[in-house]
Each structure stands twice: as structure tokens, then as C-alpha cells.
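JOB MANIFEST
job_type = single_chain_structure
chain_count = 1
residues = 74
[input]
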Amino acid sequence: MKPVAEVLTDLKAAFPGDVVELSSNDNRHFSLLVVSEKFAGKTRVEQHQMVYQALGNAMEGAIHALAITTQTPK
């Protein structure tokens, strides 16, 4: 199981220079905000797929539940 700090590092590596904010009240249920130009022209499903790809297997252990918000800078 990946530690949450490593998950955040992976997300920031996948979205370099973009806004990546991961927050939690209990270290099991998380909210994630990613603001990236990479999302331009993509559907919400495609944007979330990009995030899940960056997360790798973190959803199998470190993160129990995740609310994802994706946006473009505009």
C-alpha cells in the first residue's frame, strides 16, 4: 500500500506545474482538486481517467474513497 504522501507526489509528477490539492479529514476519505490545461477538450470521464491513471494502485489501499474535481485554468 502506498503512503498518501507518495500518492500526492505521483499526482504532482503526472500534472507538473498544475494545481494538485489532496485533502482529508481522516486519511481514508479524500477530496482531490486538479486544475490542468491537459483537461482542455476532454470529457469529465476522460479527465477522471487521467487522474486514476496517475493514482495507479493507490485506490487499492491508501485511499478508501475519493471525490475528484477536475478543471481547466479558465
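[summary]
The domain at 4-71 is CATH 3.30.300.90 (GMP Synthetase; Chain A, domain 3).
Residues 12 and 73 are 16 Å apart (CA to CA).
exit_status = 0
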